[in-house]
Amino acid sequence: MDNINIKKLAKELNISTSTISRAFNGNTDINKDTKERILAYAKQHNYLPNHYASNLRDKKSNTLAVIVPEIANDFFSQAINGIEEVARKKGFYILLYRTDDVFEKEVSFVNYLNNGKADGIIMSVSGEANDHNYLRQLEKKHVPVVFFDRVYEDIEAAKVTTNDYDSSFAATEHLIKTGCKKVAYLVVNKSISIGKVRMQGYMDALARHKIAFDDNLVIDCSNDEKVNYKILKKALQEIRPDGIFSSVERLAFATYYVCNDIGISIPNDLKVISFSSLRVAPLLSPPLSTITQPAYEMGVKAATLLFDVLENNGNTPKKEHVLKSKLFIRKSSIGE
């Protein structure tokens, strides 16, 4: 049967379209044998229900949009798992959008979703530009937003973050206590919320131990692996830090690659610690010291907050919820 739809399915099975809808929605007021017959026939003919069309009456899409800078990063993949877990239990689908840290992509996605494509948005922002009116337009359409990890402070919305300042202070202080006098801070985007907060923790730890802040030790990197390799190789050869605090895990990996190629020993010549949710961090050579965020729990919390808004018609406080990261000290920052 070509181009099967719910009407054709109902005709072939000699039952009503509403019965078919109830079978796919998991309703209990339908005979078990009838439900199994509908689902088996639908599977045989590759029929899937159009959940968008079925929800047009109440203007619900039963869909959440998730906007993230990247997907390959372990942190975001774990957070997405947490979001999906909550959404699935609520009978919702998720649509995933990746910005690659490109602000124009973020704006385009939000504008696209501002037309009933999703009931709500969970996002970790790209961090560029100061004009966030495209997000304010969502409120007019009653599309709630929850930020996680990377947030815009000027947008009133629920936020899920971690104790980045405390974690950054502790990581930098750890390097100092192991003997580092020249700690470099690796960052991709200093303008985003976490970039600012983590850098402040780094700077305050230096001040606490009476080490002068040196702007040359703030190494501004990019999203391009080859560019980062060149930046870090130059920094390690010319500035010669004895410690690295990386604000994102991919810069720690880049540091490992460069050190291996130019003969710098971690941790004997250079001690390294990084924000990272990578499960195999203990298996690296040497095992990487990490500040590990509760990524899955952040995803669960963000989704739970969004459903609180959806189920209470927006009558919920838009607060920031701060979860705690854990510091795992391994050989990359303490030696043998």
Automatic annotation (TrEMBL):
Residues 4-58 form the HTH lacI-type domain. PROSITE patterns: HTH_CROC1, HTH_LACI_2. Coiled coil: none annotated. Gene3D superfamilies: 3.40.50.2300, lambda repressor-like DNA-binding domains. Keywords: DNA-binding, Transcription, Transcription regulation. Residues 3-48 form the HTH cro/C1-type domain. Transmembrane segments: none annotated. InterPro entries: Cro/C1-type_HTH, HTH_LacI, LacI/GalR-like_sensor, Lambda_DNA-bd_dom_sf, Peripla_BP_I. Pfam families: LacI, Peripla_BP_3. GO terms for molecular function: DNA-binding transcription factor activity; transcription cis-regulatory region binding. SUPFAM superfamilies: lambda repressor-like DNA-binding domains, Periplasmic binding protein-like I. This is Transcriptional regulator, LacI family.
